[in-house]
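Input chain follows. Return structure tokens only.
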Amino acid sequence: MAVVVIGFRAPAEMAAAVASLRAQDVAAEIVVVNSGGGAPEVVLAAHLDHIRLIAVEAPLMVGAARNIGIDATRAPLIGFRAVIPALAVR
């Protein structure tokens, strides 16, 4: 099984999403697709040895990011996790 984690502009919440996947009882291949820039390698520094990180500078629509993640794995089952940054309270 693989899980494709989709992020936009490398939100800090990506690290927690990956950590939660790594903490599961069943190991899964984790592919992170980040688009729109940011510094995903910094955000995910603690996890880089355990994930496949694909960084695309241009902003991607969700479907395109998912397809990149699908192409990066040959797992028979693939799940998706979109990372949505916390909104500022006004």
